[in-house]
Write a structure and sequence with these properties.
This protein is mostly helical and 361 residues long. The chain has one domain. The chain is 68% helix and 2% strand. The protein contains 16 helices and 4 strands. The strands form 2 sheets. The protein has a two-stranded antiparallel sheet with strand order 1-2. Strands 3-4 form a two-stranded antiparallel sheet. Helix 2 packs across helix 16 and helix 6 packs parallel to helix 14. The protein is globular.
């Protein structure tokens, strides 16, 4: 049985691994220009699908690695809220649309915002602050009352967990294999994409980092018997459950920690460590490559657009239970139906946002 000192060491390990995962994600994301709204914009403006395929490769890699962890019983997918038996489909769709539209206005999603901060963008710093405050308001503030009292009342009880294998009544390994093989073949069937090894490596690494997050919180950070409560526990997680990469609520948790630092009940968690890690990792790349530049708003219109987008991302991301990485890669790695609805809605919202910007300009 673990004692209190062992638990403390494990918590520190989980946080440090979260920091390392965030550092690598920030460096890689800046190096390969990983940005979902940028990928959608490439496709929208010129028909170039290379960066969109990189994102797809990250999803496929995350599914393969995560399902392997599940198959080896190193983590339990049922411990994640992504696979809860109640499908809040309206929250997934409405929140995803709002988030997607907002990230088009704000020049990137939550993770891209952190990467841009690391590169010197003061615009992204403002987006981070507004997004974090709005997310917190939607989680626990005045917007939370509206969210819980309206949109979250509408859902569908599936009678099983909402991962595809449970819904279809099939072995998870078979379902994952079909998706990975089929999806991988489609993604790699593009000569332009195959001729850009940097994008290939970027997609593979980001997918593996999502699986590393699951292994960290659901494997290393899971104890079957806490010495104080004698109950099972996930260590150093903000949700007290198994977690991996996501960048909406963790931005709010990070801001909360900075504001209440002297409150000893507030501690650095895995997700907060990943937020800081992404910024530092991106900054290291920016400085090393000589591309670090301070960036401000161009004019009043640019400011209003980014403020509006940041608020939409904060509210929409919490409503949809995740972002382009949180739902679009992490949730999809568990083959969760809600994550599929959210991801399609985010893409649709971003597409509408890009069209709106084009029309306005």
């Amino acid at each position: 049985m673990l004692d209190a000192e062992d638990v403390d060491r494990l918590e520190t390990t989980v946080v440090l691994l979260g920091l390392a995962i965030g550092l690598l994600l920030g460096w890689v994301a800046r190096y390969v220009r990983f940005c979902t709204v940028g990928a959608i914009s490439d496709c929208y403006a010129s028909g170039d699908t290379a960066r969109l395929r990189m994102w797809g490769l990250a999803v496929i890699t995350a599914i393969a690695a995560t399902q392997l962890l599940i198959g080896l019983k190193l983590i339990q997918a049922g411990d994640s809220f992504y696979t809860a038996p109640r499908l809040l489909w309206l929250s997934n769709i409405a929140g995803g649309l709002v988030f997607g539209f907002g990230m088009a206005l704000a020049s990137g999603c939550g993770s891209r915002t952190l990467v841009r901060i690391g590169g010197g963008s003061l615009k992204a710093l403002v987006v981070f602050l507004v997004m974090a405050v709005t997310a917190y308001m939607t989680m626990r503030g005045i917007l939370a009352v509206l969210r819980v009292g309206t949109i979250e009342r509408i859902g569908l009880d599936l009678g099983s967990r909402q991962d595809l294998a449970s819904i279809l009544g099939m072995p998870p390994g078979i379902v994952a294999a079909v998706i990975v093989i089929g999806g991988g073949a489609f993604i790699l069937a593009n000569r332009n994409f195959l001729q850009q090894p940097r994008l290939l490596v970027g997609g593979l690494l980001i997918g593996l980092l999502v699986a590393a997050g699951w292994a960290t919180t659901g494997g290393i950070g899971f104890i079957e018997e806490d010495p104080n409560t004698l109950e099972a526990r996930f260590l150093a997680t903000s949700t007290r459950g198994i977690e991996s990469l996501t960048f909406v609520a963790p931005l709010a948790y990070s801001l909360e920690l900075l504001m209440l630092w002297s409150d000893t009940s507030r501690v650095v968690t895995f997700s907060i460590a990943t937020v800081g890690g992404v910024i530092v990792g991106a900054c290291i790349h920016a400085v090393a490559s000589g591309s670090f530049r301070l960036e401000g708003f161009q004019d009043r219109t640019d400011l209003i657009r980014h403020l509006s987008g940041a608020a939409m991302m904060g509210a929409g991301g919490v409503t949809a239970f995740g972002c382009t990485i949180g739902q679009g890669i992490t949730g999809l790695s568990l083959l969760a139906l809600g994550s599929m609805l959210t991801t399609l809605s985010i893409i649709s919202g971003a597409w509408l946002g890009l069209r709106w910007i084009e029309h306005r300009d």
